């Protein structure tokens, strides 16, 4: 009688790219879950950067300058990707085909076409690719979503999603920034995507978007500010602002429901104290007690998201932030751009193969497509 091989006590993980986001966020997350996952390999084309990372992570971490060589030699269970956005699709597909699950920095890809290629590779290999949207995983966000889902705050009616940050010309001096082919767009793709992903996570499916975008300051291919009006399937109407022109930087989500307003105000990460609940005048004094954020305070972080992914792996379930859930956020970005560049509303599900905004966020619009 044959006996199935026991599942390894710890998953074997590899990182691709060893720059600031990996060393500063992914490595601490891996260390926080060291009882469940071990870092066994690192990939970077820059040998000096790779060496510096191994000095930080430990010499036992195998070093590779090529992804394919690492995948062939190591066969990791999990690959964490922290490279520039233009590399995400190719590297994610390669890791999925090699049998690994993937946790990739945002944006997971630069178009709906690229997302569908990733999804097809995942389905064929029986693996999964999740995108890093760590703001979903703080205890405050988990609690707010549960309250909204249970109807504790009443029906959501009005929402505001604000990412008003500031980036100067030095920021865009990095060669891959500000270009469609390497970054996928402006703050709609590279900055505000964290907040509106959280808004979508809290409110569910959207049905229509009407948007505007501008290139007001920076000499980039994409926008440096965008705004949108959004209708959700549950009837909620929302505004979205994505900016890199705002001296007073803030990230904010506000949802006005029938019985309460819930507000999140932070910058790059939140904890329980950043969430505020304000009851409507008609609400009895007893009800708000149930709205208080949990006693345990789990900040939004890569550590929190990695924990959720490991839970899913151990259960053999689709991880959060993957599949149709992740596609919804990519489709929202594509639809915002299409509406802004064409001047008309865009409906969910409208952008399909054959639509110019399916393979590229700029949609080959003459005023916005890459300069030749």
TrEMBL record:
<feature type="domain" description="Gfo/Idh/MocA-like oxidoreductase N-terminal">
    <location>
        <begin position="11"/>
        <end position="131"/>
    </location>
</feature>
<dbReference type="InterPro" id="IPR000683">
    <property type="entry name" value="Gfo/Idh/MocA-like_OxRdtase_N"/>
</dbReference>
<dbReference type="InterPro" id="IPR055170">
    <property type="entry name" value="GFO_IDH_MocA-like_dom"/>
</dbReference>
<dbReference type="Pfam" id="PF01408">
    <property type="entry name" value="GFO_IDH_MocA"/>
</dbReference>
<dbReference type="Pfam" id="PF22725">
    <property type="entry name" value="GFO_IDH_MocA_C3"/>
</dbReference>
<dbReference type="InterPro" id="IPR052515">
    <property type="entry name" value="Gfo/Idh/MocA_Oxidoreductase"/>
</dbReference>
<protein>
    <submittedName>
        <fullName>Gfo/Idh/MocA family oxidoreductase</fullName>
    </submittedName>
</protein>
<feature type="domain" description="GFO/IDH/MocA-like oxidoreductase">
    <location>
        <begin position="143"/>
        <end position="262"/>
    </location>
</feature>
